[in-house]
Each structure stands twice: as structure tokens, then as C-alpha cells.
Amino acid sequence: MSRFMDVLENILMPIADKLNNNRYLTSLRDGFMIALPLIIFGSIFVVIANLPFLDKLIGAEAYAEYQSALGAASAGTLSIMATFVIVGIGYKLTEYYKGEAVYGGVTALAAFLILTPQIVGDVTGVIAAENLGAKGMFLGIFTAFASAELYRFFTEKNWTIKMPQGVPEAVSRSFSALIPITFTLTIFLIIRIIFSYTTFGDVQNFIYTVVQAPLTSLGSGLPATIVAVLLIQIFWFFGLHGQIIVNSVMDPIWYSLATENLAAFKAGEAVPHIVNKQFIESFIVGMGGSGMTLAVILGIFLIGRSRQMKDIGKLGAPAGIFNVNEPIIFGLPIIMNPLVLIPWLVAPVVVAIITYLVMASGLVPPPTGVIVPWTTPTILNGAIATNSWQGGVLQAFNIGVVFLIWWPFLKIMDNQYYESEKNDNGESNDKSA
Amino acid sequence: MNRILLACSAGMSTSLLVTKMKEAANEKGVDCEIWAVAQDKAPKDMEEADVLLIGPQMKFMKKKFEKTAQEVGIPVDVIDPMSYGRVDGKAVLEKALELMER
């Protein structure tokens, strides 16, 4: 068993290393991180604007006014989140190349806007917000990569304007960026013109139909979700941060799905996607952390007899409430522990299936697309994510399911610790403290 | 003054350790500044640190951090998983001090 584990770890470590040190995936992840505070700000106001029962309390007319007053908060952030991600990626990738990061960021945004249709119906000079949100997400990501690369290329060619000495640094810097930016954006303008002669009409439409729509529809399905969840669990089993590795690939898909849901939710329509960022974040990770270890902590308190189990329960509980579970993962331990491999892999998959089916049947509404900070405690987390109390109940039910799956394994583990503590008496108790 | 920097994915679980390490440092009477950051902030903060310790779940980032660490001239290591799980501030502090002495 231990040789087998060594072999597996030798396979997984390089994968994690490659994914994490890939400059595109790293800048993609960090780009999303830059956008995150804005997305959460917008999410908070969507939640406040859609408080359940409020319309009955203050009347329909006042409620409509209240909603439209708060609407700008999410319209200015969540609905156009692709723009922040683009600036973030352009910034981070240019920073990686040790260039002027701010210019890398705004050039990427400009390149994206050049490729974006600037007409809605017959009205010119306007950009549809949806093109800056979910619909533009993939084009935005590709554009940011390409624009940062081109910006670097032209900067490294050194075709820059050199200012004489004595010119303020800020002035000379903006001039030194002039030529690389001009060349970069000209290329995007040419691409736009070329595409206007194709049947797609514009690049955004092309990327959306050819790349984004197929990928997101695959990502919103149950099979792909189970694979993603299993991968997260397997990485964690070897002590590697599963989400950070898997999310670097899945986040663009999950965030796009969430943003599409949100647009439907704000328009008062049924949300189209069950699986999205919040499906994973609230109903898989948001129940005590990866592997839904809140149930494990509960189990320890309910059945733990050994000192070791009780200690780890006490250590893990306060952090576990806020979905931080490294103490349990490394302390129980879960990593490299063949005894818990089965519940560790099975429970999240079972919960993913239950949650999917329950939401598909309409018993619990799917997540609305608001982004709930992952540190939000369970039950509250599910209720906010779905904008309904049913979401919280579903989480509580799922915790029970996870507990049942873990129960026999926890029992065996606890007995083992208990016996060994009894055998070598006080000595080992001190060590485990 | 010993400046110890911890890094993990979001700086959450390492910040649990920071509290415990500060307690241990007080007990020992060692003058320490200890703080935790998310991994994307770590390279910047390394300039102000004497040592960088990485959460074991992020050990695949060690190579990347080592490059910057060499430039700044500080040691880097991964925290022992058991000490991490038990939030053993004393053990991690001792490890940090030992790394700095080298």
C-alpha cells in the first residue's frame, strides 16, 4: 500500500507543480482573485435586494423601487465581472514578465473592448452588459493572454520612444508604453475587422459559440462535476491543495455559469444552471472545507472516546465552522491515511449527486449565482447561495449523509487510538496533547 | 527581531498557526514578528521576512518561492504536516528559528 501511494504521489506532485507554475493558469487564478472582492460586494447587494418576504412587508411598489436603487451595485461589479478578470490577468501576466503591469492590465481591457460589439439593436456606441459579463468571459481570458504576450513582445523589441533626460519619469513612462500599446491594439483592431467579414460577425460571437458554450455546457453536467470533485479529493488525500489546482482550470467555466444564473435571477426568471461556482463552493467545499469535514468534527464529538480524537476535534471545530479544515486534514490525519480513503472519496460524490438531483427536481432552488464568501458557515451559506431556506436545510441534510458514510470508519479509527492510549497509558496521552 | 512569514492558499489556515506561534514566542521570550499571507502575496512580502514557511498543502509551490527566496536571501521550507494539523506553534516556531540560524 505504501509503495502504491509513493507511486501515486510521484505522479500527482508534478501535475500540481506544472498546473501551479504555468504562467497562464497562475495569472488566470490571480486575475480572478483581483476581481473577487468586487464580485463579493456585488453579491452582498444582490442578496440584500432580494431578501425573501420583503415584498410582502413593504408592498410591491416600494419593493421595486428598493430593488432598482440597489441594482447599480451588482450591475457595476458582478454583471461586468469579465472586465475585472481581464485587467487582473493582463496585470498579473505582465508583472510576471517584469513589465509595466498597469499598462498590461488596461491594454488587455482595451483589446477586449475593441473585439466587443459596440452596437445593441440599431443603437451604436453602446456595449451590452452581458458581453462584459458571463458571455465575454472566455474571449476576455484569451484576449488578456494574447494582449499581454504581444505587449511584452513589442516592449522587448525595444521599439520605444526614448525621452531626453530631465523629463519627469511619469511622462517618459507613458511614452515608453506608447509604441507597444499601439502595435498591440492595432493587431486586435485588424482581427476585429477580419471577423466582421465572416458569418460570425464578431470575435465575441465566434469564441462564445465555438469554445465557451460547448465547454460550459460540459462543465455544468453531473459527470464532469463528479470528476472535478473526485480530483479535488484525490489531490487533498496526498496533502496537496486540491481546489487551488482544479479551480485553476474550472473557475472560468464555473464563474461563467454563475454569472448566467445571476442574470436570470435578477430578471426574475428560472436560473438555468444547477452546477456553477456556488454549487461547488457552498454545497461541496462550504460544509467545513474540502471533503465536508464539518460532519467529521460532529462525528468526533458524538462518538470519539480517544484523547487523540477529542483533541483534534477541539482544535478543528472553531476553524471548521468557517470552512477552514487543515487541522482535521493534517491532524486526524486524512492525508495518506488508507483507512479514511473510502469516505473521503465517496462522501463528496454522493453529496454532489444528491444535491444535483434535489435541485433538478425543484425541491431546492439551484444557486442564484451570487458569490458567497467560502468562509460563510454552513446552513447560512446554503441559504444565501440559493436565496431560500431550503438551501440551508439541504446542507444540514447533506451533513447527516456525510456523517453516516464516515461513521464506521471514524469508529474504527477511534477504537484504534483508544486501545493504544489504554495500552501505553499516560505517556502517549501527553504526546497527543 | 525575527520576521517569520507563513503562506498558504488564502492565508487562513496559516493564520491559525500565527496565533499559536506568537504565544510560543512570548513564552520563550523571543522577539518575533509573525504573519500569514495568501500565496500570491508571498513573493512581495518575502522582502520583509527572514524566513518563509509554506503550508504543507502548498508544497508544490516551493520551487517557485525558492527562486524569489534566493534573490532576497532567505530560507524557505514546508511546514511538517503533523505540526500543521495539531497547530503546534511551538514546533513550527523552533523550526523557523533553526532555519534562520543556518
UniProtKB/TrEMBL annotation, chain A:
<dbReference type="InterPro" id="IPR004796">
    <property type="entry name" value="PTS_IIC_cello"/>
</dbReference>
<keyword id="KW-0762">Sugar transport</keyword>
<keyword id="KW-0812">Transmembrane</keyword>
<keyword id="KW-1133">Transmembrane helix</keyword>
<dbReference type="InterPro" id="IPR004501">
    <property type="entry name" value="PTS_EIIC_3"/>
</dbReference>
<feature type="transmembrane region" description="Helical">
    <location>
        <begin position="392"/>
        <end position="410"/>
    </location>
</feature>
<keyword id="KW-0813">Transport</keyword>
<feature type="transmembrane region" description="Helical">
    <location>
        <begin position="32"/>
        <end position="54"/>
    </location>
</feature>
<dbReference type="InterPro" id="IPR051088">
    <property type="entry name" value="PTS_Sugar-EIIC/EIIB"/>
</dbReference>
<feature type="domain" description="PTS EIIC type-3">
    <location>
        <begin position="8"/>
        <end position="409"/>
    </location>
</feature>
<feature type="transmembrane region" description="Helical">
    <location>
        <begin position="283"/>
        <end position="304"/>
    </location>
</feature>
<feature type="transmembrane region" description="Helical">
    <location>
        <begin position="132"/>
        <end position="154"/>
    </location>
</feature>
<dbReference type="InterPro" id="IPR003352">
    <property type="entry name" value="PTS_EIIC"/>
</dbReference>
<keyword id="KW-0808">Transferase</keyword>
<feature type="transmembrane region" description="Helical">
    <location>
        <begin position="175"/>
        <end position="195"/>
    </location>
</feature>
<comment type="function">
    <text>The phosphoenolpyruvate-dependent sugar phosphotransferase system (PTS), a major carbohydrate active -transport system, catalyzes the phosphorylation of incoming sugar substrates concomitant with their translocation across the cell membrane.</text>
</comment>
<feature type="transmembrane region" description="Helical">
    <location>
        <begin position="66"/>
        <end position="89"/>
    </location>
</feature>
<feature type="transmembrane region" description="Helical">
    <location>
        <begin position="215"/>
        <end position="240"/>
    </location>
</feature>
<dbReference type="Pfam" id="PF02378">
    <property type="entry name" value="PTS_EIIC"/>
</dbReference>
<keyword id="KW-1003">Cell membrane</keyword>
<keyword id="KW-0472">Membrane</keyword>
<protein>
    <recommendedName>
        <fullName>Permease IIC component</fullName>
    </recommendedName>
</protein>
Automatic annotation (TrEMBL), chain B:
<protein>
    <submittedName>
        <fullName>PTS sugar transporter subunit IIB</fullName>
    </submittedName>
</protein>
<keyword id="KW-0813">Transport</keyword>
<feature type="modified residue" description="Phosphocysteine; by EIIA">
    <location>
        <position position="8"/>
    </location>
</feature>
<keyword id="KW-0762">Sugar transport</keyword>
<keyword id="KW-0597">Phosphoprotein</keyword>
<dbReference type="InterPro" id="IPR003501">
    <property type="entry name" value="PTS_EIIB_2/3"/>
</dbReference>
<keyword id="KW-0808">Transferase</keyword>
<dbReference type="InterPro" id="IPR013012">
    <property type="entry name" value="PTS_EIIB_3"/>
</dbReference>
<keyword id="KW-0418">Kinase</keyword>
<dbReference type="InterPro" id="IPR051819">
    <property type="entry name" value="PTS_sugar-specific_EIIB"/>
</dbReference>
<dbReference type="InterPro" id="IPR036095">
    <property type="entry name" value="PTS_EIIB-like_sf"/>
</dbReference>
<feature type="domain" description="PTS EIIB type-3">
    <location>
        <begin position="1"/>
        <end position="102"/>
    </location>
</feature>
<keyword id="KW-0598">Phosphotransferase system</keyword>
<dbReference type="Pfam" id="PF02302">
    <property type="entry name" value="PTS_IIB"/>
</dbReference>
